[in-house]
Design a protein that fits this description.
Growth Hormone, Chain: A; about 500 residues; mainly alpha; 2 domains; about 80% helix; disordered C terminus
Length: about 500
Amino acid sequence: MSQKTLTEHARTGAAASPTAASHAKRSWILAVVSLAQLMIMLDATIVNIALPSAQADLGFSDGSRQWIVTAYALAFASLLLLGGRIADLFGRKSAFLTGVVGFAVVSALGGAANGFGMLVTARALQGAFAALLAPAALSLLNTTFPEARERARAFSVYGAIAGAGGAVGLLLGGILTDTLDWRWTLYVNVALAVVAFAGGWLLLSNGRDAAHSKLDVPGTVLVAGGLLSLVYGFSNAETRGWGSPLTWGFLIAGGLLLAAFAWWQTRAAHPLLSLRILLDRNRGASFLAVLFSGAGTFGVFLFLTYYLQLDLGFSPTKTGVAFLPMVGALMVTAQCVTGRLLPRTGPKAIVSLGFAVAAAGMAWLTGIGIGASYTSAVLPQLIAIGIGLGLVMPTAMQLATAGVGAEEAGVASAAVNAMQQVGGSIGTALLNTLAASAATDYLASRHASDKLVQSRAAIEGYATAFWWSAGLFAGGVVIACVLFRRGVPQQDTDVVHVVHM
């Protein structure tokens, strides 16, 4: 080999090596960020299956039980935009690592709880640290992957985890409760956090793209109060009914506070959430798609869990395993959609089709009955729903943050998570109320003391919830058809994505 050839080879290798190294580093960052997102999504459902065991161990009442779940949701939803802005102001790496460490510490506190007060406090603090961690994780994807193909692949993984994390939480919660103890549904976060912290410490750089801005304190107070009131109002609807002052009073207060927040954002010198982020047509449609998918998905996780355990006799672990086909379908579809379909067809067709498939799967699921077979009455329906959500979630999450400047990546990411949380709260309240009403109406004209009648009434409630979930997904079809622009989305030419490597 000539000296000239050797020189050219050395230059080529030197040029290629950093590219390969950068690609490998971005892949590891994706793994770390996805692990953090999985940890957050797990804790939205992992404790649910463990609640009966925790209640028996700690001796709290049935009326208090809901707060173990609600405390997490309230803190998470209300503090998300603040967490996103902190990431923009003080650095995404700092926010990410602080969120991971805090989440691990309070998870250990919850696992060691000696009473209801300690457990519910730990769950609220989990939600607060999740509100810091979630937008930092999503904004890291937004700034680490500027190239279209890699960005699509990254969001396909992230979107799949966001859509399937709840089902994985049910599986892991069942396994840990059955084999170890309910406390391990919280302790498991410590192990996940150690890995996420080590990866974040080694791989991430602390970009501070909004370092010269200031925190919008009035806006923070208004939006935190508004989201807290909204989620709390929907939580009260589940337990106290829609006619309770604690339901409609907080819902009205939440609406007024959010309206005041929107007004203030047009006048603030350093707005917490610039309204132009929400008013972009594709981005606004994506936020609503996340909202509707969060609301509709709740019908699968909650009521199907009841049906599998109470009517088909599944154990908690077997119930979690039963959701895996849906998770698999969602993840496989997500891998295909953002990398191959979205660049060719655009979001309108993909999200519309996804919601339509999910609605059809949910409507098909209403055929459940006493003693039905899982393989015929549940399995194919779950796969259809998984395929539909796999089309919707990664597409919506990618477009919701696409074209956002690096200085607002954190708060835009927080808005996506807030939509998912509010959607889940709406689904919880709405579907629970409708299912309970349907079951009550069924019992009203029959012998309510008969065990078979009671089982049929419960299934009538589940089926009603599934029909309404199908309706929510159908609403997503309308939103996608009306709001998303036709064609392939174009990257904003005036937005520069900063990559910190």
